[in-house]
Amino acid sequence: MCNLYRMEQSVAEAADLFGVQADSGANVASEIYPGYPGLVATCEGVRAMTWGFPLVLKSKKTGQPLKPKPVNNAREDKLSTAFWRTSFAERRCLIPASAWAEAEGAKGHMTRTWYSLPDQELFAVGGLWRPTHEWGEAYSMVMVDGCEQMADVHDRMPTIIAKADWQQWMEGKPEEAFALCRTWEGRLDVDRTDQPWVKRT
User: Fold this and answer.
1) Rounded Cα distance, 180 and 99, in Å
2) For the segment 87-134, what is each residue's pLDDT rounded down to a tens digit?
3) How far apart are CA 188 and CA 150, in angstroms?
4) In this structure, how many other beta carbons lie within 10 angstroms of the beta carbon of residue 4?
5) Closest residue by Cα to residue 50 from 22, 75, 30, 71
6) What global pTM score does this model have?
7) Domains and CATH numbers, the chain
8) Which helix (H) or strand (E) holds 88?
9) Fewer beta carbons below 10 Å: N end or C end of the chain?
């Protein structure tokens, strides 16, 4: 599953890509982690939301609610479940990304391997969003089976939506959008780095 991605272009550049208005007040980092703001494109425009739907669990010791956990990935085979169903039917979005990362290597020594699309500074990942009491508007990435190029690292990948299918994803019926939840068949650029997966301070 994806727990880190990059979006290295400006809010204006992302809005221009999707042909919508930009929220001039949006401010996000170039590397996005679960629980932090990222850019999302809806039919209304590009704006910042928190990456991850809040999931509130209760303490086994006290029974009291714990700090919400961001659920930042939505598996395509779970989209009909109660947690995702309404958002998938009513609030689909596109997530602009430059690359996503997966952890590779032995436990405790994992490094970042980045995946991107050749010759594309930005591409679109299928997502869902909803309003929340905890964090305001929040979004999650839809995940599908991983492609052959990343089979030795992870068996899941983000749902990359081709430009020709953006309108179908955003405005189509749920069954039309679900037809786009498929493994990317194009080539990926792979950048294996020596960057630690967890940055230590």
Assistant:
1) 20
2) 999 999 999 999 999 999 988 899 999 999 998 999 999 999 999 999
3) 9
4) 18
5) 71
6) 0.94
7) 5-55+66-196 (3.90.1680.10)
8) helix 85-90
9) C
